[in-house]
Amino acid sequence: MPEISFFKPVEEELALVESSLADNLDSSINIMNQASVHLIKAGGKRLRPAFALLAARFYGEDLVEVIPAAVALELIHMATLVHDDVIDNSSVRRGTETVKSGWGNRVSIYAGNYVFARSLSIISTYQRSDLIDVLARASMKICEGEIIQMLSCYNVNLGLKNYLRRIERKTALLISVSCELGAMIRNAPTQEILALRNYGYYLGMGFQITDDILDIIADEKTLGKPTGSDIRQGVITLPALYALKHDPNREELAQLLSSPEACANKAERIIEIITDSDGIDYAYYATQHFALKAQKQLDLLPDSAVKQNLYDIADFIIAREY
Questions:
Q1: Widest CA span in the chain
Q2: How far is CA 116 from each of CA 19, 75, 303, rounded to the nearest angstrom?
Q3: How does pLDDT run across 22-63, given as a tens digit for each residue?
Q4: How many CB atoms lie within 10 A of CB 59?
Q5: Which of 11, 24, 51, 40 is nearest to 125 (CA)?
Q6: 3-319, CATH topology level
Q7: Neighbours of 12 (CB within 10 A)
Q8: What are the DSSP calls for 230-299, one per residue?
Q9: Phi, psi of 97, rounded to the nearest 5 degrees
């Protein structure tokens, strides 16, 4: 089942979000415009806007007032990607040249800052301090997560707790906030806002674990970036953590993963050890665990046509191949 079918209840609104992205990145500086337009044309799943709109759909059909927040959420996500590509020295994302590759580090940093500032400007139009507070706190945690990941590279002594904190701040937080803001803008009951926030959190955790699995087992054409990108950067994800603890070759794996040179030049051997262990299966089990927790939160929400969509999305992330 194609992913876009899950977002069918909000596809018209997502089209408005798409057209609004370019309008909101219109700068008087040509090079900024070029980088921004390139970023938008690179595409993406637009998950964060979709979740904000789906959450809001629980509380009515007219979603016009949620469109600006949906745009702002995607802009925040895009800003983090631009900065990530600088930090990771990435030349390709989604099968397309990155802003970093096309315009260099300095333009990328300023472009990311510009996109992020624009998102806050959009949110400020709601004149609601609670929305700004939720986004600001999440943004700070996302930055902290990047620092945690940077300090964790090549460190084979860090365990599950460190990994979960990293993926929470890398992915789960912004998906969680997207669901939360969609409900907040519609003034949903507090307990239902919490249920949607938790749904997004658990879904985001499962989504990132699946991403980490695919980084090891999917091909480059499917991923839109080289297989084993995390390994080459010394990022130790859940399948590797399992192999480091349980595989017969764990000592060799620990030696390889703790060496920047080995991660860059012997990624194939690292992938071989991880895939020969039960690390991939263990990570899939963790994905299923979080997907089920996400679905359980839906029991706390009112019956709605979009409820099944959110339930099916949680099922989809377990089986997705891209």
A1: 59
A2: 18, 6, 35
A3: 888 777 787 877 777 777 777 678 999 999 999 999 999 999
A4: 18
A5: 24
A6: Farnesyl Diphosphate Synthase (1.10.600)
A7: 10
A8: HHHTT---HHHHHHHHH-TTHHHHHHHHT-HHHHHH-HHHHHHHHHHTTHHHHHHHHHHHHHHHHHHHGG
A9: -55, 135
**Residue type at 236 in one-letter notation:** I
The answer to whether the beta carbons of residues 53 and 182 sit under 8 Å apart is: yes
How many Å apart are CA 244 and CA 248, to the nearest integer?
9
Q: Which two tokens stand for residue 278?
A: 């039960």
- Other Cβ atoms closer than 10 A to 17: 24
Joined together, the tokens standing for residue 299 give 């029991």
Q: What is the pLDDT of residues 123-173, one digit of tens each?
A: 999 999 999 999 999 999 998 888 888 899 999 999 999 999 999 998 999
Question: Which two structure tokens, joined as six digits, stand for 81?
Answer: 């990607």
* Residue 227: CB atoms within 10 Å: 20
d(CA 81, CA 156): 26
pTM over 0.85: yes
265, 252 Cβ separation under 8 angstroms: no
Per-domain boundaries in the chain: 3-319
Question: How far is residue 197's CA from residue 173's CA, in Å, rounded to a whole number?
Answer: 9
The strand pair at 96-97 and 92-93 is best described as antiparallel
